[in-house]
Input
Amino acid sequence: MNQYFEVIRTSILYFPLAAVLSFVPYAYFQYKKIGYVQFNRSLVFYVFAFYSMTAFFLTLLPLPEITADFCEVRAGRFIPSYFPFRFIKDTFREVQGNISLFGIVKSTTFKVTAFNVLLLMPLGFFLRYLFQIKNAWLVTLIGFLTSLFFEVTQLTAIYGLYPCRFRHFEVDDLFTNTFGCFIGFVIARYSDVLPNVSSKPLLNRSNVTLTQRFLAIFVDSLLVILFTSYVIEGLTENVWVLSIMKVGLIFFYFIFVSKITNGQTFGKKLLGIRIIRMDGMKLTYKVLIARYGVFLILPFLVGEVSKFLIDTRFDNRLYLFLYLLFLAIWFVGTVLVTFIRKDHRGWLDRFAHTTQILASRSDRN
Output
C-alpha cells in the first residue's frame, strides 16, 4: 500500500509541470473549436489528465535500477500468465481452510484483483461524463485497449528499455481492467448532479476575453524569458550590456514585430487577437512605443538598474523599494486594471489610445 501512495505522490509532484506546459495548447484548441475556455470542462479535463498520469505510473513505478545482475536477480519471478481467470484459483488456494467471505476479501489475490477493477473505473466514468461517449461497446473497447497498452508495456519491459521484465503480465488484468472501465461507465449514467461539462460553440463572440489576453501575455512573456535565459545570458558577463540587450529584445519583439505584423505578436496571433488604434488608423512606432515603452520597457529598465544597485549596495533599501514600486506599477497597469474595467483596457491601451480585437474582425475591414 505504501508503494501505491509513493507513486501517487510522484504523480502529484510531476503533474503541475505537465499542466502548465499543456495549458496554452489546450486553451488554444478550445478557442479554435468552441470560441472560449469553459471553466468546468477545463477543470474536469485536468482531473482526468491527473488520473491518467497516475494510472500509468501505477503500472510502472517504481522503476528499478539497471545493474549487472538485473536479469539474474529476476529470473523466474516475472513469468507471463496467459491463462484466464487464474485469480479465482489463486484466491481459493490462498484461503484454503478458511473459505468465507471475510477470508476471501482479506486475501492478497482478491485485493490485487479489486485494485485492477478500480484502476480503470475512472476511465469509464470520464469517457461518459467528460467525453460524452454513450456507446457502452465503444467504452468497453477503449478500456480493453488501454489495459492492453499497460500490459504490453509491462510484457516488453517498456518496449526494450529494460533488458528483461520487472512486472507481471497477467491476462486476467485485461478482463478486470475492462470490467472496471464498464462499471465506471455505468456509474457515470447517474452523474446528472455534477457540473455541466458539455462544450457548446460560442457562435456570436465579438469581444476579446480576459483569458485570451492573459494567454497571449503568457506566451509572449515565456518566449522572451526563454530566449533571454538560454541565449542572451550566456553572451556576456557585463551586467549593463546584458540589460541593454534585454531591453533591445523586448523592443524588437513587442514593438518591431507588432509593427510589421500590424498588431500581432506570436502570442496574440496564436490566440486570434490583434492591437488596433482607436481612431482606425494604422499602427505606428510612436503608438507602439507609447503602448509598450512606458508600462513595459521603462519599468523593466528601472527594475534592471535597481536590481544591479541592490546587488552592489544591498544595505540601501531605497533601491529595493524602487524595484518593487515599478513592479507594482506594471502589475496594476497591465493586469489589475483589466479586471476592473468593463472593456478590459489596461493602462497600456488607454495611454496609447489602442485596443485589442479579434483578428478575424480586423481582417474583414
